[in-house]
Amino acid sequence: xSENLVEVSDYLRDQLIFLHTSFKTSKELFTAINAKAKEDGxxxxxxxxxxIKREGTFPTGLQLEHRxxxxxxxxxxxxxxxxxxxxVNDEPIKFSRMDDPEQKVDAKxxxxxxxxxxxxxxxxxxxNFTWTFPSQDLAWTVI
Length: 143
Prior knowledge:
alpha/beta, five-stranded mixed beta sheet, 31% strand, single chain
């Protein structure tokens, strides 16, 4: 078992899993996540402006071996309840790369991290990082 194991099932919220979406931009994606997360009490009014600002300053796109992903997150003071929102978009959304903001990554898979997970975002970039999923269906959708 990897020492960097994160039990995704502890943070996944059914209402914050978005499959087969058609977002065109990161801002559109953030707006949709914010609307649902705010409606269900997961975030404060400051979540949307702060995640947009942070993504512009500290981009979160990662180019992995077989796909591009993004792991946007923001300040813990905008989170009322911890969560991981999962977005599987039908078409890629351009995110600036965290290791080279001048470069873009095409991400169909986005994990929006809420709260203490934000502090662990760098772990997602590690080669030996492991996720566990609560169901095989979600795992296959993400893979």
